[in-house]
Amino acid sequence: MSSPNPAITPELVAAHGLKPDEYQRILDLIGREPSFTELGIFSAMWNEHCSYKSSKKWLRTLPTKGPRVIHGPGENAGVVDIGDGDCVVFKMESHNHPSYIEPYQGAATGVGGILRDVFTMGARPIAAMNALRFGEPEHPKTRHLVAGVVAGVGGYGNAFGVPVVGGEVNFDARYNGNILVNAFAAGLAKTDAIFLSEAKGVGLPVVYLGAKTGRDGVGGATMASAEFDEKIDEKRPTVQVGDPFTEKCLLEACLELMASGAVIAIQDMGAAGLTCSAVEMGAKGDLGIELELDKVPVREERMSAYEMMLSESQERMLMVLRPEKEAEAEAIFRKWGLDFAVVGHTTDDLRFRILHKGETKADLPIKELGDQAPEYDRPWVEPNRPAPLSVDRVPEADVADALIKLIGSPDLSSRRWVYEQYDTLIQGNSLQRPGGDAGVVRVEGHPTKALAFASDVNPRYCEADPFEGGKQAVAECWRNLTATGAEPLAATDNLNFGNPERPEIMGQLVMAVKGICEACKALDFPIVSGNVSLYNETNGRGILPTPTIGGVGLIPDWRKTARIAFAGEGDAILFFGAPAAYGGHLGQSAYLRIIHGREEGPPPPVHLTHEKKVGDFVRTLIREGATTAVHDCSDGGFAVALAEMAMASGIGAAIDAPAGVSPVAAFFGEDQGRYVVTVEAGRAENIMDRAADARVPVQRIGITGGAELKLGEARAIPIADLKAAHEGWFPRFMDN
Question: Which of 34, 272, 422, 594 has its CA 20 to 30 A from that of 634?
Fold first, then answer.
């Protein structure tokens, strides 16, 4: 594309990710052939990453309202009331394709982008998480990708100054050619000082703020809306380059400017850069926007209008400003060493007009670009559910040996190697480090209030049964928040799937959304923000369906928050939510996959009424100060949960042998809605009586103490041996 105005050919249209019928729609809308810049603008606004054209129909079915919800989907991030005039602002976004191409910058700019989504709304970021999925450890690229992504997340977040409080890291061959990097951020704001992206008023200045525009990331959103193939290295220039120190200055300048009363509307320049931010601001406010690109600060020579409009250079904002505050606003940004330029104005004609070097490079209808982009009802087929797993098909194994192998496996081993590269304590408000059920952060300025954060999904459950897998992702996130004593407030989703033009992949998306919807309604856990990432495929091989759920919970008194570590010797161990036996569901379990190399059967069903009743009861106990440790059961079942509690404390436990069920099924089954809770021995009987009155299943199953974990009749395992297995895998893998 050396010519600034190449001929618009079918090949050029296809290279911009537009289908022939979409291009015909463009011709019908504007009544003429688009210019090269206009084609780029349509490509940016109508791609999957920006328009959600394949998922919009199904996203509308999600519950998005609740008594605490201030702003749901549609803004840069969701906003939820936490009382006392404060609110939490949060969202999760994907940066999958860029992170596979260039792992350090892809992950770093994913962190930068999600932080901007939060502070664009007037919130100071207080916590970050990341959910990472890599290919099989044996794949030649996996170690390189892990090292680059983790360094990128830490390099940006640490320099910016936000603690990483939790997240996920998993491995599977299905991510060999398309890793997932999902970044979450949350911030605090005042409920009466939330800033939105909707422009208001005609003839007002449109102001460019932050860093200069370069050629990095041109076409990034379009690249993220297509599959990979063997020409993947050619896409490297579409990856953005980040500078966390500039972003930190941008944060402080924006918050200072917001406090001055100068801001009418503000939008960060993320996917599709200047194009998307300007169109969204104008379209939401039923206004036109005219931009003069000669006034845009640039750091490269001879940039074309096309390049400037599609650049995804980082650390940039677009703002509609009160004219009388212009000088004050400019002074603030100059003080922070940032660019400030009036690059256009709002109009009343609903046109998106781009001027460059005395020429009109684009003149398009702004509503059709923005909130009236194409929307598809793609064909889908409901996935086949696996046959039930018969008991006689489950091989036995030595319980102690199996537990050591599970906790030392790639998926269940300690993530300490990862999170120790992140600053988890900066700002001084972190109350729990990664490794527990949820991250917990004090609400600064309040004597006792804290927020909890968790991120969850089991992609193998979702492939076996997307409906139950979607439910389980929500339920486990809700459960992890509850296990700290938090009231789950709301969630954000990051829906990662393959090519939606394949009916079987679209069916995974549809059924997962249906499951998420049912669980969010039953658990009073609305979705207030999110992201959809499709076309996660390489040469036709799709990822596991991965609808990640990030959740936020409120803790009224952090002095009574629960942790997973056993608190002392002689505490009674109670098991809440389990059937008469400890459990038994081994379909799609970590035990079956890791110990025997088999992925069979349906995932565990999620009984939402049971889930809520048990969780509410456990949360009540935590808030009363009646518990000494709490941990939910998930991957690896009851045995892995107990091992994690023992390793976190160095204190052992003796667990009664299960009655009437095989030890393997009891200890490694992944039945849902279960919590391991320790209490002072003298309180156990009263708590069990209360549970019986509330019809919450509970069993007294053992006692804490010693330096070994003894599961029923299995041999006792020294805690030191558990720790060695648990802590060893990741450092060995990365040092090879």
Answer: 422
Segment 521-580, tens digit of pLDDT: 999 999 999 999 999 998 888 999 999 999 999 999 999 999 999 999 999 999 999 977
Superfamily per CATH, domain 401-452+463-489+551-735: PurM-like C-terminal domain (3.90.650.10)
Given a cut of 60, is residue 149 above it in pLDDT? Answer: yes
Please list the alpha-helical segments (H only) found in 345-458. Answer: 366-369, 399-407, 416-419
Distance CA 617, CA 603 (A): 25
Q: Could you tell me which of 647, 660, 643, 645 has the C-alpha nearest to residue 711?
A: 643
Q: Which of 16, 71, 95, 345 is catalytic?
A: 95
Tell the burial category of 686 from Cβ atoms under 10 Å away from its Cβ (0-12, 13-18, 19+): exposed
Helix (H), strand (E) at residue 92: strand 86-94
Amino acid identity, position 215: R
**673 three-class SS:** coil
The whole-angstrom separation of Cα 606 and Cα 212 is 50
Q: Quick check: 293 and 23 in contact, CB under 8 A?
A: no
Q: For residue 693, with 0-12 CB atoms within 10 Å meaning exposed, 13-18 middle and 19 or more buried, which class applies? A: exposed
Which residue of the set 49, 97, 345, 356 is catalytic? 49
Please identify which residue in the block is written with the tokens 């992890």. 480
Give which of 107, 129, 132, 106 is closest to 118, Cα–Cα: 129
- Model confidence pLDDT, tens digit, residues 201-228: 999 999 999 989 998 767 654 544 456 5
To the query of whether residue 49 is one of the catalytic residues in this protein, the response is yes
What would the pLDDT profile of 12-65 be if each residue is shown by its tens digit? 999 898 999 999 999 999 999 999 999 999 998 998 888 899 999 999 999 999
596 is catalytic: no
Beta carbons of 221 and 50 less than 8 angstroms apart: yes
The pair phi, psi for residue 209, each rounded to 5°, is -130, 145
Angle at which helices 608-624 and 503-522 cross, to 10°? 50
Reported pTM: 0.95
Residue 653 has φ and ψ, to the nearest 5°, of: -160, 155
Q: Cβ neighbours of residue 561 under 8 Å, at least 6 residues apart?
A: 431, 432, 440, 450, 452, 484, 485, 486, 555, 622
